[in-house]
Specification:
This protein is α/β, with parallel strands linked by helices. It has 20 helices and seven strands.
């Protein structure tokens, strides 16, 4: 993907400086193996190796790192404890688990603090790909504020009703995986976490997926019980989100997702468009958990002035919820097409080339849904990038999909 930045083309793969990568294990032979495995990366990364958790923290105290890759089971200080302390002290550092132990309990402990997962034995290409992907997003999201906010996240907020429904289904021996998938699809935070998990190298799936239903199926009911319920990945306290109605955000996400699925002209992108629609505003959830409560003031100002939240966010914070959401998805290892859509769903014209099918579907669906709910015209109120829609051939269909959006709103209000 190439996108417009400061009046020039900029490649996601271009890194301005060497990234500092720290590998941690309690066995010297494992560290030596990693050093040898990744020897070709010496000209790209500044790599360092620490024997155990305490040595890793001492290394980071001397010189901070961009990415830490840690084993899970280590004596004294295990991977979960180490990454927890890294999260607290260096929230901007991306955290990756490299472990040969796939027990559900082990994953449940570390899922709160790890961004991505790798399983042993891992080949050089897999390790390099995961780390480079993480570094690409560190480059895209240079703002230290984004890295700090996302890096300090333990969990995304979810609706209590959704959480308890998933709990009930997990405890019901007669419930099917399809029932749980339907629940997950109604919640942006759960959707993001499930996609993160199923697309991580830790699960070793042969093919990545952007489909939430398929992701839930891949995980299986036992993994869902252990990872989503027992680990309490998604909290049940809606009051922690200040300035946002979770009910409203969820409903708008579902409507956007359903409409985007229909708008996608190529059937093979229908599930991807739905998933992107569900999580397109996930950055708002992250910003809303900022303890400074500044985001509630931004939303209030947007409402009073009639400006879109993204406009006020950029003016007040120097970043948008789309950027924050994309950074989160990127370091979590969610498929790039979803992260790209989240990053640019409010400004799709910045994406200059590559497949823009999903981005176009979500941009149009969100603009029409938002306008239908507000009783406004999507072209007059500036929610749609008409130039972009014309370029991708969707401008002529706006009236048809606007009627669909109005019909969805009408049915929901009845």
């Amino acid at each position: 993907m190439r996108f417009k930045a400061e009046g020039r083309h900029q490649s996601m793969s271009t890194l301005p400086t060497k990234r500092r990568i720290l590998f941690v294990d309690d066995e010297q032979n494992v560290l030596d193996g990693l050093r040898n495995l990744l020897r070709k990366q010496r000209n790209v990364w500044d790599m360092c190796f620490a024997l155990g958790g305490r040595a890793a923290l001492e290394e980071m105290e001397r010189t901070p790192v961009d990415v830490i890759v840690s084993d899970m089971r280590m004596p004294g200080m295990d991977g979960a404890e180490l990454l927890t302390r890294v999260k607290e002290t260096y929230p901007g550092t991306a955290r990756i688990v490299l472990s040969g132990h796939a027990e559900r309990e082990a994953i449940a402990r570390v899922i709160r603090v790890a961004h991505q997962f790798l399983s042993k034995p891992a080949d050089a290409n897999t390790v390099r790909s995961v780390i480079e992907r993480t570094c690409d997003y560190l480059t895209l999201m240079q703002d230290e504020g984004i890295r700090r906010v996302v890096g300090s996240m333990v969990k995304l907020p979810s609706l209590p009703a959704t959480y308890w429904e998933l709990t009930r289904l997990a405890d019901d021996p007669d419930s099917a995986i399809a029932d749980m998938a339907k629940v997950v699809e109604t919640d942006p935070a759960m959707s993001v976490k499930v996609l993160q998990l199923v697309n991580s190298a830790y699960f070793g799936l042969a093919q990545r997926t952007e489909s939430i239903a398929k992701a839930v199926t891949y995980l299986g009911i036992e993994n869902l019980k252990g990872l989503l319920v027992a680990a309490h990945v998604f909290g049940a306290d809606a009051h922690a989100v200040d300035g946002i109605s979770l009910d409203q955000l969820r409903n708008e996400a579902i409507m956007t997702a359903n409409l985007a699925r229909q708008i996608a002209r190529d059937p093979k992108y229908a599930d991807t468009a739905f998933a992107a629609g569900i999580v397109h505003d996930v950055g708002k959830l992250v910003l809303a958990t900022d303890p400074s409560k500044r985001y509630s003031e931004i939303l209030r100002k947007a409402k009073e002035t009639g400006q879109r939240p993204a406009v006020v966010e950029k003016a007040e914070l120097g970043l948008t919820h789309g950027q924050v959401g994309a950074y989160l998805l990127g370091v979590w290892g969610v498929p790039f097409i979803l992260a790209e859509t989240v990053a640019f769903h409010d400004c799709p014209g910045l994406v200059l080339e590559g497949n823009r099918e999903v981005l176009a579907a979500v941009h149009l669906a969100e603009g029409l849904t938002e306008s239908a709910l507000a009783g406004q015209d999507p072209v007059d109120n500036g929610t749609l990038d008409v130039t972009f829609l014309a370029e991708v051939g969707l401008l002529k269909d706006v009236s048809k999909w606007q009627a669909k959006a109005l019909d969805m709103v009408q049915k929901r209000s009845n």
